[in-house]
Design brief:
By secondary structure, the protein is mainly alpha-helical. It has 36 helices and no strands. It is elongated.
């Protein structure tokens, strides 16, 4: 019996010893686990403060150790998975984590935190996947899991989670209703809710109220970068630009993100109108962010384009537009590119763009009509009269009130298509609601046609009688300019202008008569009026080019003329006529190689005019590029309209044969 009792006691003592040892190990493991959890909390706080991936990695390491030491605590598992979701960015890895969550859910159905983790995971997957269908599916699943998470608990009336749920879902009115009672209450939940209320008020358009809550919240925690950003948005909406500028300086003064810099550049470009500074800010943006993120790159390029255009760095702006089109092939940007080519003088490229666009629009649409008009003006500008006439045939222009008939009439006259012109004029006369300007134009062109067909010219007296009948005063001078140039009687035009000199401003008069002297090659007369022209202050880029060209051709002040032309080119850096003026300026200075490069650029950009080709031939001849000179003179001859110009070009062509023969010998 004693032996039995001793044996039982021994077994009990030994068992108790073992139990004590196991309990001791458990306590030690739990303590160590708690130690790792505290370290995890510290690293997570660091991560939430500076979003440093290194802190997140250390946090994941610590929570993994904590869970391994104490697997019985589901809370540690949830925190481990939550950290993994934040840390990993691979769709495959996140799918493995999702599988782990689902396996846990099968063993422990009804765990509320599982829905929270799944919502977080689906949101992350929706953000990183490149498959649009998958992204939509993940987003919907995330919302469903969030709703399940909320349904699992009966909330008190003003719970933060409910308010944040509605906020994230985009139902701001419900979020406001739930969070409003917590506004400015000095509890942890109230302070946190006030922060979200500031954002809600901003989105609801209550900017003053939003600013009030930002200031209240910052009195506890200071003004973080996120709060500065919210203040910026509010002050921008309130149009308090000085306050916005101060806040942006504060924001970008300390390790700004690329997004912050982009927003500041956007503010400087469109609201502050300080485009030079905006371009400096754009230079500070990390190039990796621009290249690796399409959603960031496109706004960056658009802001850069606007800033470059603002400071008149036109060619750089055009290159930026080309970059935009590689990313965004939206029709509006293609039209913008065509317009920009047109505005800077690159007419050939603009024509190419608009010709491509017109094929994509329905003939009755506003877009078709707009592109149609652009092409008409560009064809007229470049002297493509046959194309202009062909394009006009494709649309019932008689029904269009604002159709530019003067372009079509000029094209028909210059291409000697009198039959078609008569037909259009007759059809217009039958229209009931013909406006006064168009009536006058029809009468004028009918009169012009009569004299063309009769083979004689209007004299000054007849033309003045005609203009008096149709009641045209200052505009009659423009008609006279067109008509007399058309019939190559600039002597009559000069006489007419002198009679009507008082109806013109001094610069208009000088501009018109200098144009006559230029076309006639009367350098002597041009030199006489050049000093008067030099005293006139240019008002726009056309004035700069016209005055500059006159000073160059007359040789009164070639260097000043070049300076003026360069100012015109700042506005339209690819305008063929301006490039021609610049090339001729360098030609006059004896800088033939430089002149040759510029004149070739003028011809490449739509300079399809006899004068430009002739200048190209003259410059090539000076450089002894005889084959090029011959080619350009032949093109000049094809595009020349008056006999005097043609005879001059023929003489140059004949003169080029002798140097070619010498060269061959």
């Amino acid at each position: 019996m004693k032996k039995f009792i001793l044996t039982v006691v021994s077994i009990l003592i030994f068992t108790n010893f073992l139990l004590c040892e196991t309990l001791k190990e458990k306590v030690e493991k739990r303590a160590e686990s708690y130690y790792h959890f505290l370290k995890y909390s510290k690293y997570m706080a660091d991560f939430n403060s500076d979003r440093n991936e290194k802190s997140l990695k250390l946090a994941l390491n610590e929570i993994t150790k904590a869970y391994e030491l104490n697997k019985s605590v589901s809370y540690l598992l949830f925190k481990k998975i939550e950290t993994e979701i934040k840390f990993f960015s691979s769709e495959d890895t996140l799918s493995v984590i999702l599988n782990e969550i689902e396996n846990y859910e099968k063993k422990h159905p009804g765990e509320r935190e599982i829905h929270k983790l799944k919502a977080l995971l689906y949101t992350k997957l929706a953000r990183i996947t490149k498959d649009e269908k998958k992204a939509t599916s993940y987003f919907k699943k995330g919302i469903e899991e969030k709703e399940k998470y909320i349904e699992k608990k009966v909330y008190p009336p003003f719970n933060m989670d409910v308010g944040l749920y509605y906020f994230n879902k985009g139902d701001l009115e419900k979020a406001l209703k739930v969070l409003k009672p917590l506004e400015k209450t000095k509890t942890s939940e109230g302070i946190y809710a006030t922060l979200f209320l500031a954002d809600i008020y901003y989105n609801l358009g209550k900017y003053e109220k939003s600013l009030e809550l930002v200031k209240w919240y910052s009195s506890f925690f200071g003004l973080s970068k996120d709060l500065i950003r919210l203040e910026i948005k509010n002050y921008t909406k309130l149009n308090k630009l000085e306050e916005v500028d101060k806040l942006y300086k504060q924001l970008i003064g300390n390790s700004p993100t690329s997004e912050d810099l982009l927003q500041y550049a956007n503010f400087l470009t469109f609201l502050k109108k300080d485009c030079e500074k905006a371009l400096k800010v754009l230079k500070e943006i990390d190039k990796k962010d621009i290249e690796n993120n399409v959603n960031f790159k496109l706004p960056y390029l658009k802001i850069k384009f606007s800033a470059l255009d603002c400071v008149k760095r036109k060619l750089e702006a055009l290159q930026t537009l080309e970059e935009i089109l590689k990313t965004d092939k939206n029709g509006s940007w293609v039209i913008k590119y065509g317009e920009y080519c047109r505005d800077i003088g690159n007419s050939n490229e603009a024509i190419k763009i608009f010709e491509g666009l017109i094929k994509n629009f329905k003939s009755k649409s506003k877009a078709y009509k707009y592109v149609f008009y652009q092409l008409l003006y560009l064809y007229s500008r470049c002297g493509y009269y046959k194309k202009l006439i062909e394009l006009s045939k494709k649309i019932k222009f008689e029904k269009m009130e604002d159709f530019p008939y003067e372009l079509l009439f000029e094209a028909l006259l210059k291409s000697k298509n009198y039959v078609k012109l008569i037909e259009i004029l007759e059809n217009l006369k039958l229209k009931k609601n013909l406006n006064d300007d168009l009536k006058k134009m029809v009468k004028l062109y009918e009169k012009i046609l009569q004299f063309f067909q009769k083979g004689r010219y209007l004299n000054v007296e007849e033309f003045e009688i005609f203009l008096k009948k149709i009641g045209v005063k200052k505009r009659g001078i423009n008609f006279a300019n067109v008509y007399y140039n058309m019939i190559n009687r600039r002597d009559l035009l000069l006489k007419y202008l002198k009679i009507h000199k008082n109806e013109l401003e001094k610069w208009e008069y000088l501009n018109l008569i200098s144009s006559i002297y230029l076309q006639d090659g009367d350098i002597k007369k041009l030199k006489e009026i050049a000093p008067q022209i030099e005293k006139i202050t240019p008002k726009n880029y056309l004035d700069y080019n016209n005055i500059g060209y006159i000073l160059i051709v007359s040789e009164v002040n070639i260097k000043k003329g070049i300076e003026y032309v360069k100012k015109a080119l700042q506005e339209k850096p690819m305008e063929p006529m301006f490039l021609d003026s610049l090339a001729w300026g360098y030609y006059k200075l004896g800088k033939y190689k430089k002149a040759y490069e510029i004149i070739k650029e003028a011809m490449a950009n739509g300079g399809n005019f006899s004068e430009i080709y002739e200048h190209g031939g003259d410059i090539a001849f000076k450089l002894k590029f005889y084959s090029d000179a011959k080619k350009y003179y032949e093109m000049a001859l094809k595009t020349a309209y008056d006999k005097k110009s043609k005879d001059k070009i023929k003489r140059k062509l004949n003169g080029i044969k002798k140097p070619i023969l010498i060269r061959l010998k």
